[in-house]
Amino acid sequence: MFAPTPGFPQTLGALRTSRYSEDRIAGRSVKDEVRNNLICKIQRGETLFPTVLGYDDTVIPQIVNAILSKHNFILLGLRGQAKTRIIRMLTTLLDEWTPYIAGCEIRDNPYRPICRRCCNLLDEMGDDTPVAFLSREQRYVEKLATPDVTIADMIGDIDPIKAARSGHNISDELTVHYGLLPRANRGIFAINELPDLAGKIQVGLFNIMQEGDVQIKGYPVRLPLDLLLVFTANPEDYTARGKIITPLKDRIGSEIRTHYPPTLEQAMAITTQESWTERQSPVQIQIPGYIREIIEQIAFLAREDKKIDKRSGVSQRLPISVLENVVSNAERRALRARDHLAAPRVLDIYAALPSITGKLELEYEGELKGGETVARELIRQAVGKVYTNYFDGVNVAPIVQWFEIGGTMKLDEALPAAAMVRQLSAIQGLMEKVGALGLKLGEPDAVLASAAEFILEGLYAHRRISRSEERGFAAEERRREPPDETRSRPKRQFN
How many domains is the chain built from? Predict the structure, then answer.
């Protein structure tokens, strides 16, 4: 049984006289449909992938070329590079509604059916053949490749129970239980992590990609499927010998490389778009720009760090998760202190270590140090780099001198923001320097406390002052040079 689509033709005869006429639907493949709709979008000046940032001049033009060429294509990239998001957004290039023969498992074209059941139905009922409609979302099928996937899962198998119930011979096409590929007919079929698919399953994709048909269980069942095939893979797995068979690589029309955001500004835009920071809360949340920059710099530095495995990559999900965790820690502090405004501080980034360590795949040297130690080093380096951007050339000598003459400052996280500002104001010249961050002394206490602490953390990152759990911030200990033994030791006399 099927549910008729309200407002659409219900029979083949009515379909012929509608906007879904035979001239428009019969001879057009999915690749033709996607290509035509893409051309229309380009001509109208529409944004093709509106939530995918940083690919406008690199990846997206290559995807457009592949679609215009009617290619099956693969996206090669490390984790967290929006590969899955891109392939799922390809559905926007499909027609909003597409007719098919009602009740058909493989969504047969009403004008050109390919399965035995629909051919028989069309011969029997003619223009009275019932039709239904698929939305563009229903025409997208995605499969995560795993080693346990079988040919029956992907292509199909003979169903002896169906044969027994219908009274057909087991070799009859009507006894076939279709797999994912046939059920994706007249749509987009995506396989994530293609190299994880077993070799014999990869072989099963050959005919579909080149000849456009499938064979089931050795029986001469020919199904010329109409599909756009899209794959994703990690470059290391894709190029490693034995991971993907050469004939399958040869049949993929375009190989497109994705990448991480090339600039800090693009990365921050992605993190801002994807992170959950606009949340309902009893306290107002205000995230300083330098905190966003530090969080993003952590990911950039991690991608270059020799202690972290570059083959696995550092996902863009890392700064997204860190920012969410940082905001939550600031929110928790404000709630406990009964402040009305929460402004994240550098200490909140250290509190977000659990959202960093789980996303780093360490090399041997990193394993020896430990994930938390590596993450703390990254935070310190990131703070130092962002601090330099704001305070290069700014005279902070009075602050350093305050510590050198014996001053110490241990900050209590539980203090309300106003109390924290009073405590930090005791440091000579500190509050005057917040102007380098574009702030004024009339800013909310939570914002001023965050800025002042950032200055201290920046000085610590550049080893101008020290910081410890016991004393907090203090003067940097100077290493004394050992005495010159040649001066104190009497010279040996020779006769």
Answer: 2
